[in-house]
Structures are given as structure tokens and as C-alpha cells.
Amino acid sequence: MTTNKTTILIITSLVLILSACSSKDKKVADKTEKRIAVEVATPSGDSQQGIYASGQVEASQTANISTRIMGFITMLKVKVGDHVSSGQLLVSISNQDILAKRAQADAMIAEAQANVKSAQKDYDRFTALYKQQSATAKELDNVTLQYSATKARLEMAQQMRNEVNASLSYTGLTAPFSGIVTQKMAEQGNIANPGMTLLTIEQSGSYQVSASVSENMIKQIHQGAAAVVTIKAINKTFTGTVTQMNQSSQFTGGQYIIKISIPEKEKAGLYAGMYANVSIPSKDTVVIKSGESSVLVPAACIEHRDQLTGLYTVSSNNTALLRWVRLGKTFGDKVEVLTGLEKNEQFIIRTEDKLYNGAPVKVK
Asked: Rounded to an integer, what distance in angstroms lies between the CA atom of residue 87 and that of residue 219?
């Protein structure tokens, strides 16, 4: 009986051992089978065909509404996003003091006009007496001088009224064109100071793209050149025309600003401030960055995790390694890697399955 129990225990142990080995072999096999097939590439160099730049959609016409006088804002009813029409009253500023000055100017004009009439009568009378030799030349000169002085005082009073009227026009601010209110920097009851922007208006529908071009690219661009614009936010691509080129980079950080028109049919869905990638075809090979070569990778390879950006590389153990990188400018469908990836280091560009950090991979 004891021998039978011993035999059963030995058989059970052998079965368990064989089962464990089989399970281990199966896991190893499964691990090998689950390796994800990937394709790798190395970053491209610092020269390529065509010119690439980054820019933003902006309104062709923008106006900052401000005043040249100080006073309380008595009316400001528009808000951000409101549509306004040309000539519409937007802001009213207290003007009691200016109205008082205009009343003073009106009184001075009335007084000066009365003096002019009186002086003119004296001038006409002494002119007639002088012709009749009943008045001396000295008396006529004195009357003529007085008449000229009263006319000068009338002119001065009228110019003072013009000045007051000019100041009064800045107490009622109107829209210079039809558009949309994009910024509001004051509220009713605030004090408006001279030169302080109260509202910003952008002309609705008049969009263009403003892009920055480096000095080694600007010579390849000419006014009227075609430019392919891609706006990823709304997945739109269209062809525009270079309409303006800034000839100086003194106040733009060494970059030359170009303006690109947008066809009317492509303006639907656009908003000022949207980022745009611009590609301008060129027959010559353009150097993207002078000095040390740039590291360019396809933008589709970039992984975005919260505020971090990275891409997958292959480790020495043939596993996927997520490398955090710092990005620079975008050039068409490629993006510049400033740090985190060496020029000759391989990275994964395509995969047959979803990658994760540490996933076993095999290079095709």
C-alpha cells in the first residue's frame, strides 16, 4: 500500500515538472512571437528642397481703439466677440469740461465778431474822410491797425473752437471699419488715459498668414510666389500667394516677415491666431540652419504626453525606448529636434502595433 502511494507521488511530481517546463517554454515562445515589427530611420540633414516656415493666421486689418484725452468712461457696452459696423459708437468719455471750453470759445467768437463789425465801421468812415481830406493819414493808419487786430482776434477764437471740437471728437470713439471685437481692456466707469488701448477690432473675414523666414531663405522668395499653407487645427491645406515681404529684420529678432494671402473660399472656419505651416517650392536646395547641422524628423513620429514630447528609439535589448526630446521649428511635415536625439541615431518611424516603453521589437 505504501509502495503504491509512493509511485503515485512520483508520477504526480513528474507531471507537474513537465507541465511547468512546457508552460515556461510556451511563455518564451509567446514572448518571441509578440515582438512588434518596426521600421527605423535616421534624422535628415540640414538641407532640403523648398522653403519651410511657421506662421499664424491674422487679420489683414487691425485697429486699437484709444483716446487722446483723460476722463471717465461713461459708455462701453460692446464685449469680446461682438460684431460692429463701420461708424458705430463704441466708447463714450465724460466731456463736460470740453463742452465748457467750447462755450467759452463760442463767447469769444461772438465778442470778436462784434468788435470786428465796430472796427470795420470805423475803418469805412475814416477811409471816406481821408478821401475827403477830412482825416489825416495817421488817423487812417490807426483805424486800419485796429481793424486788422480785431480780425486777428476773431480768427484766434475760431481756431480755439476748432481745437476744442477736435478734442471733443475723442470723447465718442467709433469703429473705423466693420469687424469683430477681439480685446477689451477697460470697463464702463474706468478712467481712460491718453494713448491707452480700450478695444481692439479685427476686420472680419480679412485673413492672411504671417510667417517668419530666416536670412538664408529670404533670398529664395519673391513677391507673387505660390505658397502651400497647412493648418493642422482644422486639417486644411490650400495654396496662397506671397503678397508682402518685410525688407528688414531689425525689430523681428533676425527673422524676415512675409504675408501670404488666403483665397476667399478657404477662409471659412479660420480664426486669427491659428498656427500654420508654410511651404514655398524652390528649385534650389535650401540650407535650413547654418553652422551645426539640424536634426529633422517626421512630425508624425512625435509622441505627445501632457506637456512632454518624445519619440521611440530601439534599445540595445531590442525594446522600444521612449526618448524625451525638445522640439524647435516645423518645416513642412518635419520638425526640428533641438535636444534628446543625435544626428546619426536611429528612431522608429513605423510600427505594426501600438508601442509602449519597453515593448519587445524587431527591426524590419
From this structure: 42
Give the residue carrying C-alpha cell 499664424. Answer: 56
Taking the C-alpha atoms of residue 284 and residue 293, their distance in angstroms, rounded to an integer, is 18
Question: In angstroms, rounded to a whole number, what is the distance separating the alpha carbons of residues 199 and 168?
Answer: 19
Do both 221 and 279 map to the same domain? yes
Task: Verify that 211 and 283 share a domain, yes or no.
Answer: yes
Cβ atoms of 223 and 243 within 8 Å: the answer is yes
Task: Evaluate whether residue 211 is within a structural domain.
Answer: yes
Q: Is the pTM of this model over 0.90?
A: no
* CATH number of domain containing 257: 2.40.30.170
User: Of 159, 184, 202, which marks where a domain is finished?
Assistant: 202
In tens digits, the chain (364 residues) has pLDDT values of 455 555 555 555 555 555 555 445 444 444 444 788 888 888 865 555 567 788 899 998 899 999 999 999 999 989 999 999 999 999 999 999 999 999 999 999 999 999 999 999 999 999 999 899 888 999 999 999 999 999 999 999 999 999 999 999 899 999 999 999 999 999 999 999 999 999 999 987 789 999 988 887 888 888 899 999 988 888 889 999 999 998 888 888 788 999 999 998 888 888 888 999 888 887 554 555 433 457 888 888 889 888 889 999 998 888 999 999 998 877 666 788 888 888 888 899 888 788 888 899 998 8
Residue 199: name the closest of 344, 82, 57 by CA: 82
DSSP letter at 15 equals H
Asked whether residue 132 falls in the same domain as residue 180, the answer is no
Domain harbouring 149, CATH code: 1.10.287.470
Phi, psi of 178 (to 5 degrees): -75, 135
| 26 found inside a domain | no
Helix (H, G, I), strand (E, B) or coil at 104: helix
Please check whether residues 114 and 157 belong to one and the same domain. Answer: yes
The domain tally of the chain equals 4
208: its cell numbers: 492672411
CA distance 30 to 132: 133
Domain that holds residue 185: 67-93+171-202
